[in-house]
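Lab notebook, bench 4. Continuing the backlog of folding jobs that were queued last week. Each job is logged with the same field layout so the records can be merged later without manual cleanup. Today's entry covers Fatty acid synthase, a 122-residue chain. Filled in by technician R.K.

JOB TYPE: sequence-to-structure
TARGET: Fatty acid synthase
LENGTH: 122
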Amino acid sequence: MIIQRTRGRGVDIVLNSLTEEKLQASIRCLAKGGRFLEIGKFDMFSNNPLEIFAFSRGISFHGVSLDKLFSAEPEGKEVLWNKITEGLKNGAIKPLCRKVFEKDEIEAAFRHMAAGKHIGKV
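JOB STATUS: finished
OUTPUT FIELD FOLLOWS
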């Protein structure tokens, strides 16, 4: 669908946390010279293979270990914090859609999720 919507071009960047065949499908969505940022760990720790042919389109693949931020030097954390704050202020970063249920609404929350029509975090 992404290839169709982009008229065969694909996208420049994929921020991925999907696994196995969905990871492979995400790679196929990249445009020539696109960048793939993998934030999931399952495929990396399972040593799952990549379809190497994708690299013939000049793409790059980057494993991003977000957990490394917790042990980063204070200067690095400050730079990242400033970039995130700036991105939120100028609208480049938008918070995820979310639906919050109260603790006495557990049944309603499960029904909402079971319907499978939600977008974002529940």
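OBSERVATION: The chain has two domains: 1-71, 94-122.
SIGNED: R.K.
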